Amino acid sequence: MEIQLDKTHPTSPPSVSADVPYLFNIKWSSNSRLKDVVQQFRKHLERLQTFWSTLDDIDRSLRVVEHKQASPAGSNRQISIGNDCFIMLSINATDPKSLPEGRDKKFLDNLERILETQLPRPVDVEKNDQELECGICYAHSLPVDDELRDKSGTGTDYTCDNTSCKRTFHSICLMDWLCSITTTRQSFNVLFGSCPYCSEPVAVKINSVKK
What is each CA distance from 31 to 10, 13, 27, 28, in whole angstroms? Predict the structure, then answer.
């Protein structure tokens, strides 16, 4: 918080600036002191805790673009839903839980209920981009599609066992690729073939994808 005093101080209230979504109205009288402004600012920060908690929940639970550079005053979040598609969320700082589905539920639960879809969860931040993207479709996440059911919007879920390769895939993409190769063998519900990158053996269950 930055406090600036006018030449008419203490008759006039000081001006306040801070990295918050909105400022409070200063209550000032002839008997007021600067410590009263600081106390009012602390109460204002307490009122903003629900707003910041909601943003923290979004940052932890969804694939937020560049949230680490977000200002405490910012109320917008850009959410990646896969395949270069995004949703822009704007949170009301004065009423952060103002969603029509019910205030007793978490913001994320309400949001997914309104959108009628499950949003992709964050990927492992310790992995690099090459490991995160699928080696076949080159996307980080599968499209959000009801036909994919539990695979809808999910990230890569299969990794080549070759330690020199370690390429990641969506199991559905790997299954489709193996089905297109004439040398692929099938035993019961498992397809056996070779990694598209290192030719090491790979195996994927056909029933791992619910269509």
Answer: 9, 11, 11, 8
The pTM for the full model equals 0.54
Residue-wise pLDDT tens digits, 137-152: 888 888 888 777 777 8
For 69-105, give the secondary structure using H, E and C. Answer: HCCCCCCEEEEEEECCEEEEEECCCCCCCCCCCCCCC
Residues forming beta bridges with residue 89, ordered by sequence position: 77
pLDDT in tens, 162-205: 888 888 999 999 999 999 989 999 988 899 999 998 889 999 98
Exposed e or buried b per residue across 155-169, where buried means at least 16 C-beta atoms within 10 angstroms of its C-beta: bbbbebeeeebebbb
Q: Exposure pattern of 5-30 as b/e (b: 16+ CB <10 Å)?
A: eeeeeeeebbebebebbeebeeebee
